């Protein structure tokens, strides 16, 4: 009877030892997985890729500096994190004072990058499981400028650019793209990859240019002005009309024979200058044909002369309206 009890007790003891060993292993497994310092980093990256800015900020324990917050949530944030791939979480490295550094290696657009996150042990749960949280910090800021515009797009979101510049608080890691795609003005996209709080990205500078639509609109108005000027000069039979072109002669021109035509219309070039958009001087050619009489000999003759001309204009753009004012000097 005593031997049976011993065997039973030994069995219970073995089972208890195995249970304790299993519990110890389970605690280690949990602390190395869902209770590991890598877990908050996984949750943070997941929030970025889902565009959940509030959750990401809460996890990161980051303060937002005085800046535009348009990139901190929704599609703008989701776009910033969309190209993060091949993520590998490194081993936590002790930094003393219950703090560890968790590195992640990843790629954005094929470029290998690394970000290091500093976390601290914030407590335990159920006596055994560690709790980790990010060490509080401040978000980095991305500066954006645009030539002669008060608006742009950043990660596909329209943003205000007062005075042609603005600063945006951003979460990291991520990729940010600024562009300007207006009807009359545009700028090629420019990119910045932000891999960490202490690795500031270079400012995004948008070099605005006049679009073909604006150049075509200005060219049409220049043509309209010159053709109208030539027609009016024909109606009034003027050698020196209120136009960029004129003809001078000492002979008598036969009334009713003067005919002006534009043989070469100016090529339009629009550039930024002094905070405005200016049209470069417009150079072209105009032909005058007429009959004339030599005042000294009385001999009749023909006039057929091509004159070079040049003039400047003032360009005003209001929403979808393009206004061109010729500036003529005599």
Question: Would you mind describing this structure in some detail?
Answer:
With 330 residues, the chain is an alpha+beta fold. It folds into 2 domains: 17-208, no CATH class; 212-327, no CATH class. Helices cover 25% and strands 43% of the residues. It contains 5 helices and 22 strands. The strands form 6 sheets. Strands 2, 3, 4, 5 and 6 form a 5-stranded antiparallel beta sheet that branches. Strands 10-9-12-13-15 form a 5-stranded antiparallel beta sheet. Strands 16, 17, 20, 21 and 22 form a 5-stranded antiparallel beta sheet that branches. Helix 2 (38-49) packs antiparallel against helix 3 (53-60). The chain is rod-shaped.
The backbone outline, from C-alpha atoms, is rod-shaped
* Cα distance spanning the termini: 131 Å
Summed over residues and divided by their number, the pLDDT gives a mean of 89
Instruction: Give me the secondary-structure category.
Output: alpha+beta
Number of distinct beta strands: 22
By DSSP (H or I, 4+ residues per run), the number of helices equals 5
Reported for the largest beta sheet, the result is: 5 strands, antiparallel
Radius of gyration: 38 Å
pLDDT < 50 stretches: 19-33
Helix content: 25-40%
| The number of domains | 2
Percent range for β-strand residues: 35-45%
The helix/strand series, from N terminus to C terminus, equals HHHEHEEEEEEEEEEEEEEHEEEEEEE
């Amino acid at each position: 009877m005593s031997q049976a009890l011993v065997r039973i007790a030994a069995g219970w003891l073995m089972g208890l030892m195995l249970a304790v060993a299993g519990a110890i292993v389970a605690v280690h497994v949990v602390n190395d997985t869902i209770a590991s310092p890598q877990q908050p980093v996984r949750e943070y990256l997941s929030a970025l890729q889902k565009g959940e800015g509030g959750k990401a900020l809460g996890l990161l324990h980051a303060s937002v500096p005085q800046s535009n917050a348009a990139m901190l949530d929704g599609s703008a944030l989701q776009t910033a994190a969309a190209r993060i791939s091949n993520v590998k979480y490194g081993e936590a490295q002790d930094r003393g004072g219950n703090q560890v550094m968790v590195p992640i290696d990843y790629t954005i657009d094929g470029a290998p990058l690394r970000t290091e996150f500093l976390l601290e042990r914030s407590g335990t749960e159920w006596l055994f499981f560690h709790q980790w949280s990010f060490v509080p910090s401040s978000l980095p800021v991305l500066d954006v400028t645009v030539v002669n515009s008060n608006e742009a797009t950043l990660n596909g979101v329209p943003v205000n650019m007062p005075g042609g510049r603005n600063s945006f608080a951003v979460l990291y890691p991520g990729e940010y793209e600024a562009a300007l795609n207006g009807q009359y003005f545009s700028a090629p996209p420019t990119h910045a990859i932000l891999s960490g709080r202490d690795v500031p990205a270079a400012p995004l500078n948008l070099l605005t240019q006049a679009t073909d639509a604006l150049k075509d609109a200005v060219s049409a108005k220049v043509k309209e002005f010159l053709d109208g000027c030539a027609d009016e000069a024909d109606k009034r039979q003027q050698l020196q009309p209120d136009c960029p072109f004129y003809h001078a002669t000492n002979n008598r021109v036969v009334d009713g024979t003067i005919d002006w035509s534009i043989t070469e219309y100016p090529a339009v070039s629009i550039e930024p200058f002094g905070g405005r958009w200016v049209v470069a001087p417009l150079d072209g050619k105009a032909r005058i044909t007429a009959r004339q009489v030599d005042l000294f000999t009385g001999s009749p003759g023909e006039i057929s002369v091509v004159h070079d001309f040049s003039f400047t204009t003032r360009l005003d753009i209001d929403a979808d309206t393009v206004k061109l004012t010729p500036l003529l000097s005599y």
